[in-house]
Amino acid sequence: MIAAEDLVIRAGHKRLVDGISLTIPPGLVTAIIGPNGAGKSTLLKALTGEIKPASGRVTIDGTDLRRLPLGQLAARRAVLPQASSLAFPFTVHEVVRLGAFDRRGAGAINARVVAALARVDLDGFGGRLYQELSGGEQQRVHLARVLCQLPDPRPDGRSAFLFLDEPTASLDLRHQLMTLSAARDFASGGGGVVAVLHDMNLAALHADRIVVVHRGQIAAEGTPADVLTDALLAEVFGVTLPVGKTAAGVPFILPQAATAA
Amino acid sequence: MTAMSAPAVPAGDRRGRAQLAIMLLGLLLAAVMAAALAIGPFGLPVGRALAILGDWIAGRPAADVTERIVLIDIRLPRMLLGGLVGAALAIAGAMLQGLFRNPLADPGLVGVSSGAALGAVLVIVTGGALLGPLAASVSIGALPVAAFLGGFATTLVLYAIATRRGRTSVATMLLAGIALGAFAGAVTSFLVYRANDAQLRELTFWTMGSLAGSTWLKLAIAAPPILGVLALTPFIARGLDALVLGESEARHLGIDVERLKSVIVFAVAVVVGVSVAFTGVIGFVGIVVPHLLRLAIGPEHRTLLPASALLGAGLLIGADIVCRMVVAPAELPIGIVTAIIGAPFFVSILLRRRGIVDL
């Protein structure tokens, strides 16, 4: 379990994250949503150990994240960044292989790379140059790299954690669903998943738990049906919009119904 | 033997090809080394040169003293120093390019070599004034140390200017490198012109480089640090690969990025400092060699770095043969040859990546 205790992160005088406590349990997909500038990305960076909080701490199974050796941490948590460009002509296979850092034989690692590429619907792309791919394909290459870093959601009997920063941003619908189903598989296998999502419908459909961040604090937390309400949308996102419910009780939001508050 | 179907090499895995290329580069280097011993104004066929070498190694008396002096005291240390410096400059280029995440970083172009040259010239000038007659013997040991410090300081300043929050601006890096190089070059030129010191060689040595002054003593001083950095490269290869993704991404993959960057800056300054101290500023080796190899075997550093060392050594030894022969019995500064080969490469990379430089 990853736990944040009373996190505060400052930039100058502004508190980007202002006293957030949060636990990330294994076995669940947790979505973080919130308006632009709410502090979602900053929170994610603190949870992954990338930035040091001004106060408070983040622990993984009770150990302070920033005290854990980087190699051990990398074996237990992986981070999917928003798409990035590469300066050198790596093939797709080579990029994904960067995720496999343990000292196994070349055959085992190559098999893992091939499996990860198949998982993200990039069969046969191993020999292509990363630069020649579309933005959505590049995004999926990084997802494969991250899956290659954590091939087992429970390495050595302890849960691993996957952090996804807007994983669906440049993807078509089919691959948005594929990405979230890969996240679901990871959680079902006993790992924990945290995804920053902008699409509230995807969050409602695929997350077990939604955390709403607003002005550096947690505005609401719970199941999609509990969190996504007319009142929350008005208060946090500033839109007056009736939240619908599918027959199965999953909330959905139609922007066509919106009127700005 | 029963033919077990070996697991097929998956598409995009270029390691097998890279290992083959490294073996071929090794053979190429051996051929260039033999040629460098045989070719020169004083004719010495390859077979004869190897025979003299064999006699010398086995400790047998020389059949012909002149031939032995030409080979063992002049050509052999020159060839070996050329190979070491070529390998040093090529891996320095590859490491700097990995650090800055762009293929245009070359120690000669971004001012690291000029900073090292300034350090070396300062020692020669001030050393002569401070130490008097002792200067000659002291400064040959102090030269590489001062050149290292000059290169180290330049690399640190360059990194501080060009990198903000883990992202490097290519344009800022190149422009800052030009400014740093011009400044260090100007101070060096001033000192060289003002100095009235017999052992301060002419300015072309510090701007264009030369292997002409190679001796066994210089080789003995240059070899340990350069070979030490070569031995270090397998341990930083994966970190350099991960760094291509960005600093945060590398950290997420378990790389201690701050330590890696310090090691790279230190290693680059060591090999460039030692090279510049004894052979002056030789440009473009660090840009041509890694660029060609990335096209041939891919950018993974665990194969790129050793391949760069081999090709860099071969290239510089080959360039030195050209220097000794085209205007014989005089010699060209070796930087002329490397610039003529290298400048077109630089322009072609720049043209292809104009969008990224974004001026």
TrEMBL record, chain A:
Keywords: ATP-binding, Nucleotide-binding, Translocase, Transport. InterPro entries: AAA+_ATPase, ABC_transporter-like_ATP-bd, P-loop_NTPase. One of its GO terms (molecular function) is ATP hydrolysis activity. Pfam families: ABC_tran (PF00005). Part of the ABC transporter complex HmuTUV involved in hemin import. Responsible for energy coupling to the transport system. SMART domains: AAA. It comes from the Bacteria. PROSITE patterns: ABC_TRANSPORTER_2 (PS50893). Gene3D superfamilies: P-loop containing nucleotide triphosphate hydrolases. The keyword DNA-binding does not apply. Transmembrane segments: none annotated. Residues 2-240 form the ABC transporter domain. SUPFAM superfamilies: P-loop containing nucleoside triphosphate hydrolases. This is Iron complex transport system ATP-binding protein.
UniProtKB/TrEMBL annotation, chain B:
The keyword Mitochondrion does not apply. GO terms for cellular component: plasma membrane. Its main location: membrane. One of its GO terms (biological process) is siderophore-iron import into cell. GO terms for molecular function: transmembrane transporter activity. Keywords: Cell membrane, Membrane, Transmembrane, Transmembrane helix, Transport. It is a multi-pass membrane protein. It is found in: Cell membrane. InterPro entries: ABC_BtuC-like, ABC_transptr_permease_BtuC. The keyword Nucleotide-binding does not apply. It comes from the Bacteria. CDD domains: TM_ABC_iron-siderophores_like (cd06550). Belongs to the binding-protein-dependent transport system permease family. FecCD subfamily. This is Iron complex transport system permease protein. It comes from Kaistia soli DSM 19436.
